[in-house]
Structure formats: structure tokens, C-alpha cells
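Notes, p. 3: input format for complexes.
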Amino acid sequence: MKSKCWKFGDNVNTDEIIPARYLNTTDTNELAKHCMEDADPDFIKKARKGDVIVAGENFGCGSSREHAPISIKAAGISCVIAKSFARIFFRNAINIGLLIFECPKAAEQIKEGDEIEVKLAQSEIFNHTSKKTFTFEPFPPEMQEIIKSGGLMNFVKTKMGQ
Amino acid sequence: MGMTITEKIIAAHCGVREVHPGQFVYANVDICLGNDITAPIAIEEFEKAGIKKVFDPEKIVLVPDHFTPNKDIKSAQQSKSLRVFAEKHRLKYYFEIGRMGIEHALLPEQGIVAPGELVIGADSHTCTYGALGAFSTGVGSTDLAACFATGKVWLKVPESIKFVFHGKAKRWTSGKDFILYTIGKIGVDGALYKAMEFTGPAISELSMDDRFAICNMAIEAGAKSGIIAPDKITESYVNGRVKKGYVKYHSDPDSKYSMVYEFNADDIPPQVALPSLPENTKPVDDACGIKIDQVVIGSCTNGRISDLRIAAKILKGKKAHPSIRLIIIPATQDIYKQALKEGLIEIFIDAEAVVSTPTCGPCLGGHMGILAEGERALTTTNRNFVGRMGHPKSEIYLCSPAVAAASAITGKITTPDEIIKL
Ligand code: SF4
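Output follows (584 residues plus iron/sulfur cluster):
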């Protein structure tokens, strides 16, 4: 599946991804409506289901609000590719099953509007627009286990069931 | 090879003798924390998973502090979910308004966190408790839900960076200035995924309140945690508050650091972080004269009693500049009461400040002082991101309580020396 890319800079923080004025709800549809609002007020109008966010260093820095990856996932964004992620955003994404990829080359070279495809099994990102392939490091096995379970709570449930 | 204090605490909580940076572990948690923004999602997740019992009702702390006293119906619903959960599971630590405070000031004050413990909180500034010599880190709501169920958290053991502060702090330089200076040097991702260990003679002389301010902002450098090894000052703070046994850990002399920074406290004047990242720091002298509309003194960084004492010392007998809205928020009820006893509140009210009940309030643009388009705030909080305190086109400057108080009097960024001459 080809996905269209939307580019953002370095240090995109959680206040830009989902401003605190919307944190008085946990309704995912409501959170989706304001995804990326303070970074790009038109983002949610432009982005389509399956699109990809491509960003620079330290994506998701700032607060621990899980509302940030939730709003991205609920907005239908298929994954986030960045040079690096802030650590709480990183673990939240793993825990809720939002796909994220740390791939500095891809994050740098992919341009806004490029169409890409993520090949998970091969740990590759293919840029259909520029015809370039980028590889990323697969997650450590323990994290893969959490991802495969469909998130941390499912993982915990299976573990507790045993 | 020796271990750092951080590695020792994590190893002890995994029941092993040693751990190494990069290692993936499931660690036992002594205390886990949630607030009125993050706990509702954790509670939903916990209940959705159909788990009936929490791992330990004495190790879960819920503090409604962000939008409380509830600013609207939706936030009232969120606070209610905490209250209902706390009752249902008979949690020992649920802090209702009137008994509460901003979580990261409240937990140490109430003796809930002890040195050597492993603490997680669904709030990024959970790193504050590192000042007690605990390993303490921010996580998300799903992590919190999993911890409610299991009492465990998944972690990658972080590498440590050591920050040595030599010399002696200058007159108006506080813990806040040390950390702003540090973030200015290393950047907002300068310690990404790492533990920041603060040490050296200038740190040893700092009060606990200053140490909390330092560890509080470790996250602003991207760090997993900040930590200061316990010493006499830690012990005298903890004694009488902490009612449980605890272990004091120290880094071995031959432990390994991914980086060591050496700073001289004598070179660090009071700092200001310009919009819109905490790394945009400058000595206050270089920012003097910038006009501001609002000054906020409070938050989990600088709403403690010594912060209020410094502010009162500068504001005593003076008034906030006519163009300034001055908002002062003691971080907990105990701090509020102490400030009242010492006459600080009267000084603030005489200075025409708004004094509020404990709340995060304006720090995250929640309530109690939101900025309009084009307005500028100087604040003792910890984040100056775009839109953090209100309109996306407002601006935030970060500083210490001393600089905030001095600037409130003049209406523009001002050094404390200008108000209180030697
Ligand atoms: S005072 Fe500000 S930074 Fe601290 S917990 Fe509250 S909102 Fe977060």
C-alpha cells in the first residue's frame, strides 16, 4: 500500500500534537479532530486515512500524554517515521500499537507529498516517488512481543492468564 | 566494572545483582502515579482488560491537579473517574482538592517517595523524585494501567551522563538556573533516553527544593531520569516524612558514563529561556528589558516554600507593575499554609498578585491565567513550547522565582540585583 507523507521539523512536542485545551476528554474521535493542530492547523483537513507523518529529531517531546499517539492513530495515520523519538512518546506508541520507525535517512530524504511503502518484514521503507529504499533497525525482541500482542494491555492479559 | 546509582536501583528492583545499559528489564515498582489527565485513560484500559484487582492499593497514587478545582464539566468527569476508582480499590493515596497539591511537590512532601525506590508516573515530570536518590521516570497511561495490574514496568536500562558542578552558586543563581543552563548547553534532546546524574560541590550545597527543580527538568533535555545521590540534606528532609525503610545508593567510583560534563557554578548567572524551547537559554542580563504581560510563580518546578520565600523577599513592600498580571500558586496545601504563617501571602496580595489554591493551572494552559494572542509571559514553570500557556501566538519565557518576582515589579525582564541592591 502506498502512503502519502506529511513532513514536520525537529522537536515537535506533545502540546503541538494535541494541545492541553483538548485534554479534558479521552474520546478518541474527539482527539483525532485536533491531531497536530498547533503544528499545522490544516493538517487534519489535508491528511487522509493511511497517510504517514515524517519528522525530524525528538518527535513527541514534552508531556507524557498518551492522547498524542492516540490522536495520531485515531486520525488514521498509518505510521510515524522520524530521525528520533522522545522516549515517553516512543513507549506510548509501542504500548498502544501505533507504528513508529526511527530512520534518520528516510526522515531526511523523504519530501512532503512523496508516496512511500513500509515493508515491515524486511525492515524497509520504499519511496515510490524517488525510488529509494531505506532500512531501519527492527525493534528488540521484547518490544516485538508487546507489538505482536497488539499492545501492552493485551500482552499483560496473556501473561496474567498464564 | 562498577555501577551507577541508577543501575543499582534498577538491578535491585529486578532482583538481580547487576544490569547493563541497553538491557531490557521488567522492574518492580514501589510507587506508581497518575493525574486527572493521564489516569482516566489508565483506568479505562485497566477496566477494559477485565482485571479485577490492583496489585497493591498502598502503592498507587492518584492526584487530580491539572484542571482542578474542575474547570469544566469534562474535567469534572475525569476527576470523578479517579475518585470512583480510588474508592473501589480502596487506594491509600488519593488526594482530593483541599488536601492536595501539584503531584511532584506533593509526593515527596508527604513522604510517599523514599531514596532508593523505583517510581513511575504517568506524567513526564515524575523525574522530579530523582532529587531524593530514587529512580523515577515518566511513562504513559497504558504503562500505568499495566502497573496497576502487575506492579511492574518494562524498561531499557539507560546509560548515564554525569554533570559535575564545581564552585559555589552566585547570589541569585538557583537550582532552576543550573538546569536551564545545562539544557542550554546540551539541547532539548541532549540526554535522550539517558539518566542525568548531578553531582559536585555546588550541588551538595543546594537545598532539597533546588534539587527538586533540577531533577524536575531532566525531561526537558529528553532524559529518562535525573538523579542526585542522597546525602545529609536528603536525610534531614526525609526524616520524619518517610515512614518506611529505605536504601541509599551511590555510584561506584569506576562506574561508566556515556558522557561527563563539568561546569563551574561561578560562571552561571540567573538564566532565562526564550521562546519556544527550554534550550534557548541566555543569562538574564542579555534578556533584560523585554516587556511582559503576565508573571507566573508556581508549578512542580518552582512552587515550593523556598521559591515563595525568595519571591516574597523581592516583592515585599512593592507592587506589581500596572501592566503586569502576577499569579502566584503555592504547589501544595502545606506550602500554602506555611506561606500564610510566614506572612508571605500578605506580601503577595499587597503586591497585587493573584494567589491561587494549588493547581497546575496556567503551566499547561489549563486554566487560571491563559494567554491571549500576542501576549508574553515570564514564568517559573518548565516548558515554553508554542501554545503551552494559551494562544499559539503567545510567548513564554522561563526563569527562576527571583527573576520572575523582580520582573513583575518593573514589567520587563529584570535582574533581581536591580530591585534588591547589596
Ligand atoms: S505543574 Fe505543569 S509541568 Fe508540573 S505536573 Fe503540573 S502541568 Fe505538569
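The longest strand of chain B covers residues 160-166.
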